Amino acid sequence: VQLVESGGGLVQAGDSLRLSCSASGRTYTRYLGWFRQAPGKEREFVAAIAWSGGTTYYADSVKGRFTISKDNAKNIVYLQMKSLNVEDAAIYYCAGGRPITSTVRQREAYGYWGQGTQVTVSS
């Protein structure tokens, strides 16, 4: 499974940004998730979506502002981010795996990771 993120960049607080994750070999995964890691902090869960059925999960900190979606035909998962604030600045990683419902927010449940894309938010 290869995961390649794109779409990161520098935005101002309040702006929107859409990240993309292109997944090859995705049939080996059940979920695709987005995680982020800010300097000096641990990598944290942001959102996840099931390839089959499209069930979504969000971290409380992004619920209502971020939307995860997928295009099964293109094997791409998107993360639409709105109302960005400085606390959202981080390297965003997409991850593929076969977690169960109770572990979908745990990074240890994902075995495949992209290289990350930087999101910078200026105040």
Tell me what the structure shows:
The protein has strands spanning 2-6, 9-12, 17-24, 31-37, 44-50, 56-58, 66-71, 76-81, 90-97, 110-113, 117-122. Strands 2, 4, 5, 6, 9, 10 and 11 form a seven-stranded mixed β-sheet that branches. A four-stranded antiparallel β-sheet has the order 1-3-8-7, with no helix packed on it. It has no helices and eleven strands. It has 123 residues and is an all-beta fold. It is globular and about 40 Å long. 0% of the residues lie in helices and 52% in strands.
Task: Show the helix and strand layout.
Elements lengths: L1 E5 L2 E4 L4 E8 L6 E7 L6 E7 L5 E3 L7 E6 L4 E6 L8 E8 L12 E4 L3 E6 L1
Parallel strand pairs: 2-11
Antiparallel strand pairs: 1-3, 3-8, 4-5, 4-9, 5-6, 7-8, 9-10, 9-11
| Beta-strand content estimate | over 45%
Write down how many β-strands occur, each being a DSSP E stretch of 2 or more residues. Answer: 11
| Distance between the amino and carboxyl termini | 37 Å
Helix content, binned percent: under 10%
Unreliable stretches, pLDDT < 50, 5 or more residues?
none
Helix count, DSSP H or I runs of 4 or more residues: 0
Q: What sort of overall outline do the alpha carbons produce when their principal axes are compared?
A: globular
The ordered H/E elements are EEEEEEEEEEE
How many whole angstroms does the radius of gyration measure? 13 Å
Average pLDDT for all residues: 95
Instruction: Give the biggest sheet.
Output: 7 strands, mixed
Structural class: mainly beta
